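User: Please predict the structure of the protein below. I'd like the answer in structure-token form so I can feed it into my own downstream comparison script.

Assistant: Understood. Taking the following sequence of 423 residues as input:
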Amino acid sequence: MIPYRVSSPFAGKFYCPRMASMNKPAYAAIQVRSPLKPVLVFVASRRQTRLTAMDLISHAAADERPSQWVHMEPHELAGVLGRVRDASLRHCLQFGVGLHHAGLAEPDRQLVEALFVQQKIQVLVATSTLAWGVNTPAHLVVIKGTEYYDAPSRRYVDFPITDVLQMMGRAGRPQYDTKGVAVVMVHEPKKAFYKRFLYEPFPVESSLQDQLADHLNAEVVAGTITTRQDALDYLTWTYFYRRLLQNPAYYDLEDASPEGVSAYLSSLVEAALADLAEAGCVTVDELDDADAAGNGGGAVLPTPLGRVASFYYLRHSTAGLMAAQFRGRQLDHAQVLGVLTSCSEYDELPVRHNEDVLNAQLARQVRLPVDTRRCDDPHVKAHLLLQAHLGRLPPPVSDYLTDTRGVLDNSVRLAQVGGQPAG
């Protein structure tokens, strides 16, 4: 059993001061609800892991108990600290507080996970990715804020409900503990929503409609879909179709009658196929064109470009962009780099708070110019990271090492596609 508690709401318009105001209540929650058992504190960013850990240590020092979370002998702690690469992590481990985020080197992450699971350290401050990737149960879970910075929309947005549930689920795993406690710290306007979410059933909705074109392209290439009717039938086999009938308002379906549902699905399919045809990934026959077997019109056929996009798991918009830019043209290195980094695969590259300043500084060091008015754009950041990697420039912060790995992973696929014939 896991008692869930939404803490007193935190006021304040600005994100960083609000996060700072949560640190003392987080420390109090640890002292009251889990003074001796493992504690996981989830935060939204790598920077917040460091700031939160340092504040918790400060509160412990103010109570004249700075080593209360260290559960190993001094000689063992000294050996552990000698193996740590990251300076912030090394400092925090002295006080029994670990950090966990994607910016740490793999040996550091494995070390801090082992120390926490073995209860050599009592507190672990982590980003939400830990809730999905590693089995690190705790007695108390503190979710310090339910928002994160979303670079594409350039604002703070709520965590997906599934992420919040996953984080809360780390409290009180049956094989490790008889019970657990989860404390959710929220912005004042969100308290009513999260109280309802915790105590009432919450439906899981589909996002297929937002990615339908790419899914249809894969099915057309695989031969599952060969006509418009096949595409409609495909939709009726999905979870999206089940939720559409159960919760039509969520999907903006105004007419829930069978005729209205059919018209709605047809419009989705037509729009997705039109996008694919415009990108050059499929060809779509007119409805009044009968095929040789007399099966009627509406045949949907893959193109070589569509096959390439499906093989390399690329979005149809990227395939269309690269075909348009590379077909019949001789591009220099700067132009090729510009095309690669403008692809939608880089839409989700994180641009964290104040990283626009770091990007502007990096722009002054690289060889090729970028639009410095868009330093908070993920595509500009991808351009800068590739240039820095090719030019062997040191990253301004450790977070950029992990970001560069992600950029390079995508660039390999994109570069391979750039060398493929489009038709």
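That's the full token string. The longest strand covers residues 39-43.
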